[in-house]
Amino acid sequence: MGVQVKNTGDWAGKEVVQVYYSAPEGNLDKPYQELAGYAKTKELAPGGSEDVTVTFETQSCRPR
Q: Can you tell me the distance from the alpha carbon of 20 to that of 9, in angstroms, rounded to the nearest whole number?
């Protein structure tokens, strides 16, 4: 999964992109949401942007 992150603020900074998945409703012994993967940007100057790709195993997102 890829996204473009843009610093719209007045100061330089870093950002973390997080991808979550949810278990279907029912009687599963799982949390409501789980973190599938994340990626960090480099330090972005004001107005700067970066394309970030978050990768994760789709097998780990299936109910157990």
A: 25
Question: What's the full length of the chain, in residues?
Answer: 64
Residues 34 and 52: their CA atoms lie apart, in Å, by 20
Q: How many CA atoms lie within 13 A of 51 on its CB side?
A: 2
3-state secondary structure of 34: strand
Continuous H helices in the chain: none
The C-alpha atoms of residue 30 and residue 60 are separated, in whole angstroms, by 12
Q: Give the whole-angstrom CA distance, residue 34 versus residue 18.
A: 10
pTM above 0.85, yes or no: no
Measured distance CA(54)–CA(37) in Å, rounded: 6
Q: What is the mean pLDDT of the chain?
A: 87
